[in-house]
Design a protein that fits this description.
Number of strands: 15
Structural class: alpha+beta
Largest sheet: 5 strands, mixed
Radius of gyration: 24 Å
């Protein structure tokens, strides 16, 4: 704790890529900033930066130390925020992780709305279809489909999530409409690839009836990016199973058509995941409430578009 100011200087130097810029931000002269960094390295008996005339480059030891310093400073900032809770102060940085399609087509615009209400909150949106290591990457909130087993995270349900088989209207005009899932053997399919393998087993339910179609790996278009998979479907390259939240705008604009609407794919509810052992800051609390409200509003707007036999409450859990 005696070196807290030096640690903040080190973190700022790493963030800004230069010691002089970090010193200016913290009100230090270049000489004072250099002396304080040298003192910190002397205490640690470790060189944190490789210095050149133009820039600082973190050493391997510096990168390890930086990760822990950022987490420690975040805890201290959260403690300060906890003291401000009674004054309704909502400020600070939030790092949000989301899947590529959801982040680009939905969350980015909603975060603009959130920032208009809370201009003192800084936002970082990290897009990845895999679940990142939230602690190592300093993620405050991850938004993912399905239920995850990680007990170190709290999962707050944001919305129900129906998935649909869909295709571009021009593809349907060329290739026709399947009457049941087993007819998909006559259609080109687009699948989402993951590290363990492609998600090429599609399960459909109609009442008590269940059909499973396994997309042949040698004929499928495959990508690990949900946004690319959706774009391929929009270009008429085949049929795809997508979340209603990824294709809502495409359905509204008529760019995609739902196929087999009477058949249901297994639902994967949308959850917000955050750290169990971290203080729930005011900025994260208001963001969670904001997102829950926006998803509820969007679900109501989507109901007229879904020409399906099941009532809307079964689709959205309302």
């Amino acid at each position: 704790m005696d070196n807290l100011g030096d640690i903040r200087l080190f973190v700022e130097a790493a963030n800004l890529g230069g010691l002089s810029a970090a010193g200016r931000k913290l009100g230090l002269t270049p000489a004072a900033a250099s002396a304080r960094l040298a003192k910190l390295e002397e205490i640690l008996k470790t060189r944190l930066f490789e210095r050149t005339t133009r820039q600082l480059r973190l050493t391997d030891e510096g990168r390890v130390y930086l990760e822990h310093c950022r987490q420690a400073l975040q805890v201290l900032d959260d403690a300060h925020a906890a003291l401000q809770t009674g004054r309704n102060v909502v400020r600070g940085k939030l790092r949000i992780s989301a899947t590529s399609d959801l982040g680009r087509n939905l969350l980015s615009a909603w975060l603009d709305e959130f920032n208009a209400q809370y201009p003192e909150v800084g936002l970082a949106l990290i897009l990845s279809d895999g679940l990142s290591n939230m602690l190592q990457e300093d993620i405050d909130l991850a938004i993912r489909f399905g239920v995850l087993p990680d007990s170190s995270l709290i999962a707050r349900r944001l919305a129900a999530n129906q998935r649909f088989l869909c295709a571009a209207p021009d593809y349907v005009a060329r290739c026709g409409m399947p009457k049941e899932p087993r007819d998909l053997e006559n259609f080109r399919c687009i699948v989402h690839g993951t590290v363990p393998g492609a998600i090429n087993e599609w399960r459909f339910m109609r009442g008590e009836e269940v059909q499973t179609y396994t997309v042949p790996a040698d004929t499928a278009r495959e990508t690990n990016d949900g946004a690319v998979a959706r774009e391929w479907a929009l270009r008429g390259h085949g049929v795809i199973v997508k979340s209603i939240w990824d294709i809502r705008a495409d359905l509204q604009a008529g760019r995609l058509t739902i196929l087999l609407p009477e058949w249901r794919c297994p639902e994967a509810p949308l959850h917000a995941l955050y750290h169990r052992h971290r203080y729930l800051t005011p900025r994260l609390r208001v963001l969670l409430d904001f997102l829950a409200g926006r998803f509820a509003q969007a679900a109501a707007e989507l109901q007229p578009l879904l020409d399906a036999p099941a009532p809307a409450k079964e689709i959205f859990g309302q």
